[in-house]
Amino acid sequence: MSQKILIADDQLYIRVLLEQTLEDLEDAGAELMVASDGLEAWAIVQAERPALVILDLMMPGLSGYQVCERIKSHPDLVNTYVIMLTAKGQGIDRQRSVKVKADEYITKPFDPDFLLGRAAAALGIQV
Amino acid sequence: MPIFPPNQVQVQPSTENSQVDRRHLWALQALSSRISTASDLDQLLDELIQGVRSIFHANVMIFLMDEEKETFYPAAAGGAAVSSERPLDADEFRELAVHIGEAEALLLVHDATGGERSGVPARMSVPMSFGGRLVGVLEVENDRVAAFEERDLQLMITLANQAAAAVANARLLQEIQQQRRALARQSQEMAEESSKLEAVLNTMADGLVVSDLDGVIMVSNPAFREMAGLPMVHSSHGGSLAESFPLEGLESLLTRALETPDRMFTQDLELADGRVFKISTTTWRVPPPVVEPERGDRIAGVVTIFRDITHEVEVDRVKTAFISTISHELRSPLTSIVGFTDLIQRDFERWIVPHLDGKADQIAQRMVENLSIIENESRRLSQLIGDMLDVARIESGPVEGAMGKVAMGEVIQDAVATVAAWAREKGLDIQVQLAEDLPLVRGHYDRLIQVVAHLLSNAIKFTHQGEIRISAAVVRIPEGDGPEHAVPELVPGEWLTVHVADTGVGIQAQQVPHMFAKFTQVGGPLSGKPAGTGLGLAICKGIVAYHGGYIWVKSEPGRGSTFSFALPTGSDPV
User: Fold this and answer.
1) Contact residues on chain A for B320, CB-CB shorter than 8 A
2) In this complex, do B338 and A109 lie within 8 Å of one another by their Cβ atoms?
3) In tens digits, what is the pLDDT along chain B, a chain of 574 residues?
4) Are B236 and B217 in contact (CB under 8 A)?
5) Annotated domain spans of chain B
6) B130: Cβ–Cβ under 8 A, 6 or more apart, which residues?
7) Do the domains spanning B204-308 and B402-574 agree at the CATH topology level?
8) What CATH number is given for B8-175 in this structure?
9) What residues of B are in contact with residue A110 (Cβ under 8 Å)?
10) Which chain A residues have a beta carbon less than 8 Å from that of B327?
11) Alpha helices in A1-127 (DSSP H)
């Protein structure tokens, strides 16, 4: 079964950027899914059980923190790898990410190659 | 020089009732009634002089004892130009006083024309004693030789004793009146002082409570009573402070104040209704009883100040949310720009360039270079936005997260880890030297990493060969040291110092004073030097400043620079 990756961001361009960034993983057999708000993200997580979720912080419906908190407090989903996209230097964002048990946080603007490397490592894929 | 010429008589005081004739009795009675109506000492002396004159028809002088100086001073005189023609000689009187005082002798001089007081043929000097204490000397003089007889002297003794009693009483009365006036003045001053204090208490916006050792309210001001919803009259006296105002944590703050006298403790406490108060407590002392000053003053309770900061807390929250939103909104488009530029570059190089040749290949290379310029400049813009938000945050004080106990060794290790890759890339070695047993400092972990990482980044940026050394140690600067002590940048106290030394290009002397100003860059933005925002060191200075510390730099152009900062360890100055 192919590994699934969920990208959740309310901004179209960021979604496209993330999709293109992770294209190489798609080539390696992973399946990319996108959500444009927090509620949609949570629905897809429950239905599709992705192995990796990349969450933006500020989204309508549910914030990235709330989605992460739901994932990490759900016994079947707790092993989902969650990367939070935070603003640089915002210590409070990082503290909150730690509090909701996110596996990793990457600051915006991010280096696409770096993000690709981290995502690949999370899934155990060589790129 | 003998005081008593041979022609004088000394008589020892006698307690037996002397035989006084009717003239004397009458004179005594008259004098008694005169002096009984005198209202003060001056009038009394005046009456005494007049009375004694009318008895002896002679010049009269009264000398009173100045107890402090143990001398006599001429207090009153009456008669034919006594005081002006024969001014009293101080030495003469000291001798007389000593003699009379020691022997309590009475002196009758029949003929003193040959003595040192020339022109005074007859004189009687009689001590005025009351209750066994010498009050003064009563003296009469007559220009007739042998004008006085033994019985005159007896009368003088009676007169002098009566005068002594009257003077003593008048003095006592005078003293009582003086004390009464002083007391009245003092209580007036106290009333004025207390009305000033009351005006301050009544008009101050902060709530104030003075409580005793058991936490019972002794004084509270209207602002406090309004905060606590207590009746505006002074009825809150006698109640427990902690019960009057159910702020969680208030009681422990009061206890802490009493456990550590004379120190102020401040804490923000929240009431169940959402109001937030900044509470400051400190002990107050009462002076020892006037009669037992050796007991010293004692702690009598706690003074507590309440400041309603509900509004400030709300503003702070809104500000944090605003900064957070702005930073998110600004970063999103930048994330797209940086990310897409990078992707275009990658795809272009991977998929397009291999298929090009000749002119097209040349143009493609230029396009790749131009794309990397866009990417670099976007990153710089992103950095600038981040830095400006940092400046805004720092200038409005620390908002996010509470300060905690921070181990500087960990901060340094973490900061070194963030720049290690870059240093390796440039072939620079980073040496870390941490003193043993570094104390924890009160601080903001992330912010301190930001400072150390920035100083390290700067060092790497401006160093092309050699090494970077970062060290941390404790410096104690004793109280009372002049400005020429080991670290002139620091005031007395205990400091944790961090030094970041490089072997880089260094800083020109004239630029050193501007290093920590906003938008300052070595060489200026167009000099082709390594690019930055010019805000980094200003941010470092801001962060160090709100930790209560100092930051400074020493540099030798061409040899390298050492950036240093110091944070208070919280220990009292040695």
Assistant:
1) 92
2) yes
3) 334 443 444 544 444 444 446 666 777 787 788 777 777 888 888 888 888 888 888 888 888 877 776 666 777 877 654 443 344 455 555 555 555 444 444 555 555 444 444 455 677 778 888 887 778 888 887 777 667 777 777 788 888 888 888 888 888 888 898 999 999 999 999 999 989 988 998 899 999 999 999 888 888 888 988 888 887 766 456 688 888 888 888 888 888 888 888 878 888 888 888 888 989 999 998 888 888 888 888 888 999 999 998 888 888 778 777 776 777 777 778 888 888 998 998 889 889 989 988 889 888 988 888 888 888 888 878 877 777 777 776 666 554 455 788 899 999 998 888 888 888 888 999 999 999 889 999 888 878 888 999 999 999 988 988 899 999 999 888 766 555 556 777 777 889 999 999 998 888 888 888 888 876 665 544 444 455 667 788 889 888 888 888 999 999 888 899 999 999 887 644 3
4) yes
5) 8-175, 204-308, 311-400, 402-574
6) B161, B164, B165, B167, B168
7) no
8) 3.30.450.40
9) 335, 338-339
10) 87, 90
11) 12-21, 23-27, 38-48, 64-72, 91-99, 112-123
Which residues of chain A lie closer than 8 angstroms to B390, CB-CB? 89
Class of the CATH domain delimited by B402-574: alpha beta
CB-based contact B345:B368 (threshold 8 Å)? yes
- Contact criterion met (CB < 8 Å) for A91 and B447: yes
Fold of B204-308: Beta-Lactamase (3.30.450)
Q: Which of A10, A14, A17 to mutate to test the interface with B (most CBs of B within 10 A)?
A: A17
Residue A109, preceding bond cis, omega within 30 degrees?
A: yes
Q: What are B566's two structure tokens?
A: 């110091």
Contact between residue A82 and residue A72 where contact means Cβ atoms under 8 Å apart = yes
Q: Could you list the residue range(s) of the whole structural domain that residue A26 is in?
A: 4-123
Residue B255: how many other CB atoms lie within 10 Å: 15
Nearest-Cα distance to chain A for B446, in Å, is 7
**How many beta-carbon pairs under 8 angstroms link A with B?**
72
A21: nearest CB among B320, B343, B447: B343
Residue of B nearest to A95 (CA): B401
Structurally, how many domains does chain A consist of? 1
